[in-house]
Amino acid sequence: MTALPELTTEHTVTVPPRELPVTTTADVVVAGGGPAGFCAAVAAARAGARTVLVERGPFLGGTATGAMVASFMGFYWRTTLVGGGIGHEITRRLVDAGGASGFTPYVLAEASENPLRVRTFPFDPEVLKLVLDDLAAEAGLDVRLHSQAVDPVVSEGSVRGLVVQGRYAPEAIGAGVVVDATADAVVCRRAGCAVENPQGRHERQPMTMMARLSDVDIYRFRALPREEKRRLARLGVAAGELAQQLLSLVSSPSGHDAFILMTRVSGLDGSDSEELTRAEIAGREQVRRVLSFLRREVPGFENAHLSAIAPWIGVRETWRVVGDHLLTESDVLSGRQFPDAVAQAGGPLDVHDNTNGLTLVEPPAPFSVPYRSLLPRGVEGLLVAGRCLSATQAAMGAVRHMGTAMATGQAAGVAAALATQLGVPPRAVPADRLQALLREQGAIVDSPAQPRLPRTA
């Protein structure tokens, strides 16, 4: 018997081309079932489009459920509501389902050197899974879980569908418009879109592995003075058990569980499978060290035990698309309002780096996201939403909050539906028509009024 040559990394292999069946056709296909993609799909369906939602995981919700980031930010600027529409409907349904109690004041990064007061919406990720299933069914979505968006179907220079890898075989889904809400801009990059990532891949914002601890005395911990929390955070860093000076947590609606946000995995690329594997393992090891420190040193955690580690690590930044408008830090920090605004946002500008830690800056006023930031430059038939939309690294730190991601997703979904109904590419959708339809769906697209409550509320 003749021995076959050993394959090495210097070799290439030939994969035979093959035709794929078009198993489904729709008006709109959305890639990614996280906060942005889910709202895009529901919005498109409510606007009358036959919509398919493709999600690689076994449930919807993305970062909110799979990464267990159990608190929505971005719905408020100070005390002014800037996020409405489907995202706000999700918060109301969570309250009705017993998975949340409502919006609450919160001190972001309280144990750090530059804390910031914000309004957040803590929730139970398990209840959110049920809420999203209900909303998807009511909207009539064709949901495809366990399905990875692989490639765009491109015909005559326009995206006309999506290649999806299921559990066994790939298939093609034909569509009038595709929305890329994959967070990693998978579809856009495969379509040849330019990306805004001037820095090296390993200079992206660090990742965080969340964990759920049970039997925590939340009230005792909350009652600790800020200076004591600062002391404990410094102690944890000095002991090598905390990766940064943060003692951040979100309490569950029951008040006895804590979702801890205290890990930090730096210098790895969250869009590379090999490096992401290393990040997942490193994140879980950090959870082990954090739990040991909390139980030993931090009041309220003496009897805490680990009840769950997030199914996957939270990734803040990978690829961002270059669109017809690149949202900048100046746009955010000037509270800029665009004539083609499709979403309002309140920040804060929240940028984690790999050396100095955390930068938090509150915009002086709500700012808007223009429709042009959802239009990948030079490609037709494709929209983008969520943290991979067209923005610089700093600006993305202000629009990646899940409340804002939901708003950009809803805008992309409505725009996709409108494009198919008008028979035009998304770039030709009139901004005023899009804004009017978004208002009908309850979205906030116009500059909100100034807050009427005191700043400390």
TrEMBL record:
InterPro entries tied to this protein:
FAD/NAD-bd_sf (IPR036188), HdrA-like (IPR039650)
Gene3D superfamilies xrefs:
FAD/NAD(P)-binding domain
Q: Which UniProt keywords apply?
A: 4Fe-4S, Iron, Iron-sulfur, Metal-binding, Oxidoreductase
In the record, what terms sit under GO molecular function? 4 iron, 4 sulfur cluster binding; metal ion binding; oxidoreductase activity
The superkingdom listed in its UniProt entry is Bacteria
Q: Is-annotated flag, keyword Kinase?
A: no
Q: What is this protein called?
A: FAD dependent oxidoreductase
Source organism of this protein record: Amycolatopsis sacchari
